[in-house]
Amino acid sequence: MNAQQNFEQLCANPYPGRGLVIGRSDQQQWLMVYWIMGRSSNSRNRRFTADSGSLRTEPVDLDKVSDPSLIIYEAMLELPGKYLVSNGDQTRTMFEFLQNGKTIIEALATREREPDAPNFTPRISGMLDFSGSAPLLTLSILKANPLDPARSDRFYYSPALPEPGYGYGLTTYCGDGDPLPSFSGDPTLLPLQGSTEQVLESYWSALNADNRVSLAVKEISPQDNPSRILIKNQF
């Protein structure tokens, strides 16, 4: 019931911004969901493209790009047994730190909330790690400190693995506004029902039709089988 209520709130939210959900479908598939939204022409001039296990944003019309710094990035990357997702170029930071034997917490300690005043968009990140004796799920959000937005508050979560049919999600905003109100609270429990294709369609339908831009679902096999990414682009 809690997961369904959270999903209904997502459906009613005109602008959750970028969001991610990590968990297991009720068909036992490990999944990463990631979406982007946009209000400005610069933000809407994007689409997802995938190459093997990597997901990235790219311009629809290169001539219309006014500032690529916060809108063009790798959203999903993977290492053997480790799968990363984030809403910015911190995906690459986490990837490189893990390659060097460090942790994503060490990686994100080098990053701040996004420098897009007055919104100061949070950086949301997640990892599924199958490299140890048991799978691990890690989530993070870096947010502007409410008293001094030049500083970042850092939150890290290691929830128990969700039961099949559920995942944990983060979004950048809790609604529309000017400035945009940042996400608050802990990661939310959300449903992951049906096949990977059905999950893609259900989350695409949940996003506000005027503001949604792109959505992707990565299907992950911990048995070293290649991952699979499904994409839906508005433009």
What is this structure's SSE topology?
Layout: H1 2-12, E1 19-24, E2 30-37, H2 41-44, E3 46-51, E4 54-59, E5 74-79, E6 82-86, H3 90-99, H4 104-108, E7 123-129, E8 136-144, E9 152-157, E10 166-171, E11 188-191, H5 196-206, E12 212-220, E13 228-233
Antiparallel strand pairs: 1-2, 1-10, 2-12, 3-4, 4-5, 5-6, 6-7, 7-8, 8-9, 10-11, 12-13
Characteristics:
Glutamine Phosphoribosylpyrophosphate, subunit 1, domain 1, 17% helix, 36% strand, seven-stranded antiparallel β-sheet, 235 residues
Average residue pLDDT: 95
Number of domains: 1
Structural class estimated from helices and strands:
alpha+beta
Shape: globular
Biggest β-sheet: strands ordered side by side in the sheet: 3-4-5-6-7-8-9
User: What fraction of the residues are assigned to beta strands by DSSP?
Assistant: 35-45%
The Cα radius of gyration reads 16 Å
User: What does the main sheet amount to?
Assistant: 7 strands, antiparallel
Which CATH-level-2 architecture?
A: 4-Layer Sandwich
**Low-pLDDT segments:** none
Q: Number of DSSP strands?
A: 13
